[in-house]
Amino acid sequence: MKIVTWNVNSIRARLENIADWLRTHHPDVVLLQETKCQNHDFPLEAIEDCGYNVAVHGQKSYNGVAILSKYRIEDVINGLPPFTDDDQARYIEGVTNGVRVASVYVPNGNTVGSEKYHYKLKFLDHLHDHLKATLLYEEAFIIGGDYNIAPTDDDVNDPAGWHEKILCSTPERKSLRAILNLGYSDAIRIHHQGKGPYTWWDYRSGSWQKDDGLRIDLLLLSPQAVDRLAGSGVDRDPRGLEKASDHAPTWCTLL
DNA sequence: ATGGTAGACGATCTA
């Protein structure tokens, strides 16, 4: 069972790229972030034609998350419990093919110390509490998403340039580590040590051409999911295409 | 160069 997380930076602007990728790789589950449209504007039929059921939690212009699955998607939760009335659409959870999955779009935070930064840290606290509670179910649970945090300097091509900047500041990294310390595992780091792989390259300054990337898109696995983990990786290829998202799809496979 | 590029949306905001 292959599960993917991908920040697509607008589902409508990326529809051709995404549909091509789905038809080539046919993953079982795809956790999308930054769909950037209201539910009634989501290109439902085009995705269904690729062979997927869809659960969406969108809003106008910004954010927006979705779950695509070849299997039925049940027990869907829109919004991060218990703050499911948050006006920013950043979390969706459901159960598919016996696996609990979630797609999370953690706030970017703008700059360290800003109002948006404090909102980011608060969101991470809420995420921590929800993932702590859900761990008690003792299920295979995978939380894929754009965490907007590079866990360590190994996840950054240019750590000096990003030192204590947004995505790399110590408080953000501590918040992420607190979630991992609950008992969740960063799937990529089970199979890949050392520098990289990266998942995001800024559109600006030729970051892609210089491979000046960061690994901020993660798949966090409950112990029961790790028991079934077979492999993981990042598919860099879509980042090099015309009309690419600035993020690459990150995947793992379960036995 | 407090720059650079992309998307939504229709002037800026977000990333």
From TrEMBL:
Q: Hey, where's the site called Important for catalytic activity on this chain? A: 217
Q: What is this protein called?
A: Exodeoxyribonuclease III
Phylogenetic classification of the source organism:
Bacteria, Pseudomonadati, Pseudomonadota, Alphaproteobacteria, Holosporales
Query: Which Gene Ontology terms cover its molecular function?
Result: DNA binding; double-stranded DNA 3'-5' DNA exonuclease activity; endonuclease activity; metal ion binding
Q: Which residues bind Mg(2+)?
A: 7, 34, 146, 148, 246-247
Marked site positions, Transition state stabilizer: 148
Q: Where's the Endonuclease/exonuclease/phosphatase domain?
A: 4-247
Q: Which organism is it from?
A: Candidatus Odyssella acanthamoebae
Record NCBIfam families: exoDNase_III, xth
